[in-house]
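User: Design a sequence. Structure:
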């Protein structure tokens, strides 16, 4: 069944609204679209100007998925697109036509495509579609089992304190999956990936029993991997307030430092779409930096 709708003056056709995309939770495509529509006021500032990569799950989270960077030809003309170089493209493209989610109609359009996860880089493009210098520094904290997000919170506090000494204010969020991320506004003092790597190595040296700064999997059990490489311009990180393709419709959720410091169990920091909406209604955007 197809349903024509008008969103902020744009005409869209929504389809398969009753399809269940999260079977264990009974969460349908209609609920995905509703979530993204309602969270848009706090989500859009974190997407605007950033080339979009999505993970699409047309048959739900238990089905096959695919990454999509290139906006296909049938993308509506009113969706903003920017043509950017694509070094290392797996499809041998020299450039990619990225979509940029600047408004609610574009966000609803992608939600209707079952683009459950929204990933963006740490830089934006200007009005002419030219890439700007990175404006965000990010650390992805990834626990190696049996470590969990609880161990990530301990490392996050250490990292926060180091960044504070460097004059940077860190903001924490869950990844919506197993780990969490720290963000800070970036002032281009040096190349961000090299800077993040240096900080990760310092912390690893100080806390070798808790932290690892290299990707080698055999070194990671029971420790937290500080992934500094997310600052590579070619990489993306899940956006604040994006859904994740887990058993439940979990959300990459901004946190308070009090929540980080008081975390005792992994479930303390699991938030679903309804949870995220309730938090924003009560607290506003804890990531209100964009």
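Assistant: Done.
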């Amino acid at each position: 069944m197809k349903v024509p709708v008008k969103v902020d003056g744009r005409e869209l056709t929504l389809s398969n609204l009753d399809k269940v995309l999260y079977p264990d939770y009974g969460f349908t495509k209609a609920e995905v679209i509703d979530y993204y529509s309602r969270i848009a006021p706090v989500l859009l500032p974190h997407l605007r100007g950033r080339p979009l990569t999505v993970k699409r799950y047309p048959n739900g989270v238990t089905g096959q998925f695919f990454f999509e960077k290139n906006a296909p030809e049938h993308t509506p003309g009113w969706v903003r697109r920017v043509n950017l170089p694509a070094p290392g493209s797996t499809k041998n493209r020299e450039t990619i036509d990225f979509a940029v989610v600047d408004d609610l109609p574009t966000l609803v359009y992608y939600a209707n495509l079952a683009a459950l996860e929204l990933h963006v880089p740490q830089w934006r493009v200007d009005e002419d579609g030219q890439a700007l210098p990175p404006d965000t520094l990010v650390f992805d904290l990834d626990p190696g089992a049996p470590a969990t997000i609880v161990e990530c919170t301990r490392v996050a506090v250490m990292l926060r304190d180091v960044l504070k000494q460097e004059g940077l204010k860190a903001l924490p969020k869950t990844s919506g999956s197993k780990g969490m991320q720290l963000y800070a506004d970036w002032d281009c003092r040096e190349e961000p990936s090299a800077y993040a790597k240096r900080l990760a190595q310092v912390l690893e040296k100080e806390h070798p029993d808790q932290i690892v700064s290299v990707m080698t999997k055999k070194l990671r059990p029971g420790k937290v991997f500080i992934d500094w490489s997310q600052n590579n311009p070619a990489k993306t990180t899940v956006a604040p307030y994006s859904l994740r393709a887990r058993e439940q419709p979990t959300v990459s959720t901004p946190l308070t430092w009090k929540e980080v410091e008081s975390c005792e169990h992994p479930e303390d920091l699991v938030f679903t779409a309804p949870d995220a909406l309730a938090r924003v209604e009560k607290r506003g955007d804890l990531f209100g930096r964009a």
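The chain has two domains: 2-132, 136-231. The first strand starts at residue 2 and ends at 7.
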